[in-house]
Amino acid sequence: MLALLLAVTPAAGATSSPSPSPSSSGSPSSSGSTSQFPNTISGFLRNAGQPLAGVKITAKGNGFEGSTTSAPNGSWSISVPTEGSYQLTLDESTLPSGVKLAAGQENPRTVTFNQTTNVSTIFAFGAGITVHQGSFFGDLANRLVAGLSFGLLLALSSVGLSLIFGTTGLTNFAHGEMVTLGAVVVFSLSSVGAPFWLAILGGLLSGAVFGYAQDALLWKPLRRRGTGLVPMMIVSIGLALAARYVILFFFGGETQQLPYSQTSDIDLGPVSVSPNNLISLLISVVVIALIGFVLLRTRLGKATRAVADNPALAAASGIDVDRVIRLVWVMGGLLAALGGILWAYYRPGVTFNMGQQILLMIFAGVTLGGLGTVFGALVGSVVVGIFVELTTVFGLSSDLKYVGALVVMILVLLFRPQGILGRRERVG
After folding, report:
1. How does strand 64-69 pair with strand 56-61?
2. Which of 5, 49, 111, 203 is most buried, by CB atoms within 10 Å?
3. How many Cα neighbours within 13 Å face the side chain of 272?
4. How far is CA 108 from CA 58, 77, 92, 399, in A?
């Protein structure tokens, strides 16, 4: 089924959104080369809503130098051989007559790859527009909002993983591929002309179906055979590798953009936030509130909590444990797919290994909050998300901010092994 969903779109399929398309790519020896590398720096050039064509942009760094010119729609893209930091320069002499960079706009500027193969950057133009250098408190406010948005979308995937662990005891390393699948299916359906709402619905359903199929075809038979949790965890690692490279085979290794992924930030007082991040934050809050209501107020939620607390006692009380576990897998897959779609807009971009990149953050959130506790996963994920973004304000390199979150998780577990909301248990 996974192969069928992905086969509808070749790896080189184009997104239906106005994603940047390279007019030329740089190479170490010459500009304008058609040589393609796996990493790209891209963006759009617009002045007063009108695209700027024929503007030269040069990227230099890591032993590489290449240039490109903006396309008629204002898009530009430069392929670079390795991730890292590059100096990006816009040649102002190639701008149309009367068009200038906004006051305070940084040129040249440094762009850095961070957990993605695509970096987007925006140059602002126009008289009367001033780009202010951010103050410490302004940067702090912006990072807090970004961290909250990241933490909440992380919580969606973490809650699904925590539900699965709570009811089955399984640490599922294939959860990252459930995250990837949602975003990949949305891109695949969009690229063949499906309406945006239908592509989103298809992405969510793919996660739910993948979760159902996993339990029905793999985990339930293993449970009935009495397979131990450690062998099942090893099986989940193998499943993750298999699913990841099936996605790579059909989707390809390029970074693709979902529809409407290229947006300009909006100012909300001292905070600048992209519409996508704002919508992501609101969706996450609504979905998490709905999950809390289901778990606390409905029969399904009470049955789920009973199975997580004591499966044998729940079965003796008349609860269909296998049915509850199956529904948990469906819910976990659905939440993972939703988290993957929002993650693709946050990065931005869709890649075959995007779930693998965020998996450690998911585990950090679940472990920090308390293994098997849904609300602990929520709290832990928000803490991880905010910490990850705030570290850059205090001077930590953006390449190391995810490592910092894992260090905090280790320190917390040294002093509180059960996590923030976990219960202390006696071993032995």
Report:
1. antiparallel
2. 203
3. 11
4. 9, 16, 11, 21
